[in-house]
Amino acid sequence: MSSIPYPSESELDDDARAVLAQLPALNVVRMVAGAPAALRPLTELGQAILLRSELDPRLREIAILAVARATGSAYERAQHEEIARTIGMSDADIAAVSSGDLQALDPDARLVARFADAIARHVRAGDELTAAVLELLDRRQATELVVCCAYYSAMARIIATCGVEVEERLPAAGLDPDVWRAREAERSGVRGEGGSR
Fold this sequence. Notes:
Number of strands: 0
Shape: globular
Distance between the termini: 42 Å
Number of helices: 10
Strand content: under 5%
Helix content: 55-70%
Oligomer: single chain
Structural class: mainly alpha
CATH architecture of the largest domain: Up-down Bundle
CATH class of the largest domain: Mainly Alpha
Order of helices and strands: HHHHHHHHHH
């Protein structure tokens, strides 16, 4: 049971109803609808991170799972282990980052996981870690990674404090990975030439 009640249908304004109708039925989105002025900006930022950034989707999911582990967010872990499978990540990599067994990851994944963990636990990553990320990624992708880590760190705190419960059926469950990749490719095309790596 949530610590803060989810808003009832009668408490939602028209904009909140429109946002909820466009998105998967996620308890976290329903909870944020209780703060209507924040709903659209927060969900648009989440969609930008997941669907419109140049950051490699595998590295993005590794970062999110590292944040989920650092913050103890079972909700984010459940959602993003499923998304990680959907984009084709191996069960071994998912288990490694979710358990904190970073030595089982390749060097790039290990670096991103360490960077995400530092942001989630300590607010900022150290200079050496940040410099290493800038060697791996260009400026835009590195900045997208920071935004991703900060967003999911913030959402973990909303989830924990409000007591957001994991859905009985996860929205990404059963989604065909080829369909997911096609959607990502289609959205990447919208950004124009050179919009993705």
